């Protein structure tokens, strides 16, 4: 069994900032209403012509530069998204090709907001088992494209962006444990009704707005908090750790109230819970890697810090990873 570490991180967010005041002009809402319920003040929207792969490419390039690696040195590309360029081929294939890594394995993960958690676990497993030496894990979303901008319950939440992490073999293993889960009993809690093989997109679906995200907010809130707390405790217990050992919690940026409730459930103080939801909103699979890359840029992490990645999303799906930080730039 080999060790694995994060060798580089990067992120990209579009230039267009959409504030709560902007949303007040088109929705029956206010800055106070949005802030109180979500903690969000603004989010980013990608313009027409900018797709999932464009943002993923930008984030991956920064992560590769940070890791001081060429794309040809990456053995596998994993992209988490629910807003791919096309139904197929996988957007990861396009990103790898545009990076100049034609011929390398590449695939997408479609597990919504839990995507980066799943991808990080899978990429680390590839490296630790000896299948690959280096893996790029990317989360990229253009959620503004699948959001009904007239629906107050969802239009205030979602934004666009991408984040990436380059994983590589290491002498000391940063991956400590994980806990993943899913429950597809009631997909209607968070889904897009039309666009798949069960119900194609037609004029009737578009008229009903069924090509956009539908969500049962109250039910999602309860499930998200419970599952995030449960998964985190299991992941930590597997390696004889407790929430009190956590240096920083990096949660999916769904909603500040969900983040705060999960932190309380784990008894992790607010100063150890990282958040940028105020500036970027919910970017689904991109939220954790964007938060990770920003935190690395700020120099928050130090050798030996215990990071807790935790997320919840469509599926329903959830997951948590206990990760021991290893300083960048110490390639074996």
Strand-helix topology:
Blueprint: E1 3-12, E2 16-19, H1 20-24, H2 31-38, E3 42-45, H3 52-67, E4 76-80, H4 91-99, E5 106-109, H5 115-128, E6 134-142, H6 152-155, E7 160-170, E8 175-182, E9 190-191, H7 203-207, E10 214-215, H8 217-237, E11 248-251, H9 256-266, H10 277-280, H11 287-297, E12 306-313, E13 317-324
Parallel strand pairs: 4-5, 4-6, 11-12
Antiparallel strand pairs: 1-7, 2-3, 6-7, 8-13, 9-10, 12-13
Task: Write up this protein.
With 332 residues, this protein is α/β, with parallel strands linked by helices. It has helices at 20-24, 31-38, 52-67, 91-99, 115-128, 152-155, 203-207, 217-237, 256-266, 277-280, 287-297, and strands at 3-12, 16-19, 42-45, 76-80, 106-109, 134-142, 160-170, 175-182, 190-191, 214-215, 248-251, 306-313, 317-324. The strands form four sheets. The protein has a five-stranded mixed sheet, with helices on both faces. A four-stranded mixed sheet has the order 8-13-12-11, with helices on both faces. The protein has a two-stranded antiparallel sheet with strand order 2-3. β12 (306-313) and β13 form a beta hairpin. α3 (52-67) crosses α4 (91-99) and α8 packs parallel to α9 (256-266). It is globular.
Give the overall silhouette.
globular
Instruction: Please bin the fraction of helical residues.
Output: 25-40%
Task: Name the poorly predicted regions.
Answer: none
Strand content: 15-25%
Q: Termini distance? A: 16 Å
Read across the widest sheet, the strand sequence of neighbours is: 1-7-6-4-5
How confident overall, as mean pLDDT? 96
Q: Over all CA atoms, what is the radius of gyration?
A: 19 Å
Summarize the main sheet. 5 strands, mixed
* Overall number of strands: 13
Name the structural class.
alpha/beta
Please count the helical segments: 11
Give the SSE string: EEHHEHEHEHEHEEEHEHEHHHEE
